[in-house]
Design a protein that fits this description.
- Keywords: Membrane, Transmembrane, Transmembrane helix.
- The protein is mainly α.
- The chain has helices at about 1-20, 40, 55-70, 75-100, 115-130, 145-150; strands at about 25, 30.
- It has a domain at about 1-135.
- The chain is built from six helices and two strands; from the N terminus they run H-E-E-H-H-H-H-H.
- A two-stranded antiparallel ribbon has the order 1-2.
- The chain starts with a helix and ends in a 78-residue tail after the last helix.
- About 25% of the residues are buried.
Length: about 230
């Protein structure tokens, strides 16, 4: 986000510098708007040019490309605008050098002047802005990546077979129980205490069961012996 904003500001600054350059002096006190676009292809002449058919025309086109690139976050459009400005500036320098015999830089108003510097600076700033911008096709949130993810087939959910799912009768929902009968589970026998016949549960000797009087097995009531005699 920050890179897009910074790149957009740099590119817009370059567009402003490029559009301003034809209104400044380019060579020997002659402004850039006085050079016709056709002179860049046929040769520099002394004929004056109108503003809309001067070198300002391609620079205006480049500025519109920059604005469209910033709105659409298109690095290609911004970079193309910078190449247009630099290309026409280099073409003018070639034609001017052919017309003058050589290009000179002088501080007394002769030779290359500030308008050319503005054009070069505008084109370079546009290219730097294009490099700083991330654009739409970069980063993890790109539209192309989202479209590819949307086109991927999604496998439908396949329910497991009925014989592998435990069902609870009241709600017919999967549960932890393995009981599949519609009838309630039988209850276990209630607890009745320790088993008297299990020697492990005997902590003390049990008293023998009481017997009937006269029973020889009864130790409390032994059988009576008949009197002698």
């Amino acid at each position: 986000m920050i890179r897009n904003i910074l790149g957009s500001l740099v590119a817009l600054a370059g567009a402003a510098s490029a559009v301003l350059s034809p209104f400044r002096d380019w060579y020997d006190g002659r402004a850039g708007r006085d050079y016709r676009v056709r002179d860049l292809f046929e040769g520099i002449t002394a004929t004056e040019s109108g503003v809309l058919v001067s070198i300002l025309l391609p620079f205006l086109f480049a500025a519109l490309l920059v604005i469209a690139g910033v709105v659409l976050r298109s690095r290609l459009a911004v970079a193309l605008a910078g190449l247009v400005v630099l290309g026409f500036t280099i073409l003018w320098m070639v034609r001017q050098g052919q017309a003058a015999g050589s290009l000179t830089v002088g501080g007394d108003g002769a030779g290359l002047q500030v308008g050319v510097v503005n054009a070069w600076a505008g084109g370079v700033l546009m290219l730097i802005g294009a490099l700083l911008m991330r654009g739409r096709g970069w980063g993890r949130g790109s539209a192309r990546a989202r479209r590819e993810r949307e086109r991927e087939p999604v496998e439908p959910y396949a329910a497991p077979p009925a014989d592998q799912v435990d069902m609870w009768p009241p709600t017919q929902e999967p549960g932890m129980s393995t009981h599949t009968s519609p009838w309630p589970e039988p209850e276990v026998d209630p607890y009745t205490g320790p088993d008297p016949h299990d020697p492990r549960t005997r902590s003390y000797p049990q008293a023998p069961p009481p017997g009937r009087p006269g029973d020889p097995r009864d130790p409390v009531h032994p059988p009576r012996q008949p009197p002698e005699g």
